[in-house]
Amino acid sequence: MVKRLLQAIRDNGRVALTVLTPQEWEPRALAHTQRARAFTEPYLRRRAEQKRHPVEDFLFTYYTQKPAQLLRWHPGAHTVLTGPGAVERAGWKFYRPLTSAERQQLGLNDDDGAAMVDLPAFLAARREAVDFAHIILSGTAARPAQFGCFGLHEWAMAYKSDENSIRHEYLGLRLGPSGTDEVVEANRIRCTHFDAFRFYAPQASALNELQPTREAQRDLEQPGCLHANMDLYKWAYKLTPVLPSELVMDCFELAWRIRTMDMQASPYDLAEWGYPPIAIETPAGRADYVRAQRGFSAESQLKRAQLKKCIDQLHVDAGL
Question: How far apart are alpha carbons 175 and 187 in whole angstroms?
């Protein structure tokens, strides 16, 4: 890949600019769109047909990024895109055209299309979100992972519910209402994730050994938690467009796979959807759960480190 660097940006640890020609960046943009469409198009078809999917809809209905936003490719900060396609991007939110002085330094003509992420504008608007993401990612990465939850948060959400009042009312309970309640009552429940705990059935909240709150989130998040690891996608898209979209999609696909395992270990019967259960009410099922959970934790720590590194660079860029 041809790279032309603006050496002056290296002062104070700042990253040098990378200039990409259309031949370099347009194939990346197309590859990203095709990668994202594999997920967005089935969801949009189901939505148009008013159909639901217990696994595949989650990342589009629980999280706030829309399919159209996921489809858009961004190179990330410190990258200049050139060519006709860059002209349109100059008008996108948190993008800007290059100044004449910048063009001259980079050897570009004034009539060349050239745009890049407007990092100062992004930091001015999103500084609080960037700082909070850094707190959560750093704190979570530093804590020991816990692997004894066995996905009981989903069971606690269905506790003391009948078939008509459970959270996913279109799904049947694999063990029935009474069998589900028995699993909850026979196990230690110690969920650390507030955004799972807040959906507990009222009768189950007191059974949780911890009482997570939004304020305590920064102190409780830990890298064994499936939901904390799914949330890497949330922190990634909140940093759009300063993150490269390839990293955002990595986090999306990781969250997709974690969600699949999360629902397989839930009390719901997903046989007709093609998902075999992880029977966490049995020793074998719990062992399967922990084995998969450890794998996701290790994978997530790598992505967490990548996200944190990007935020650390943003702090350098902001002069912090």
Answer: 15
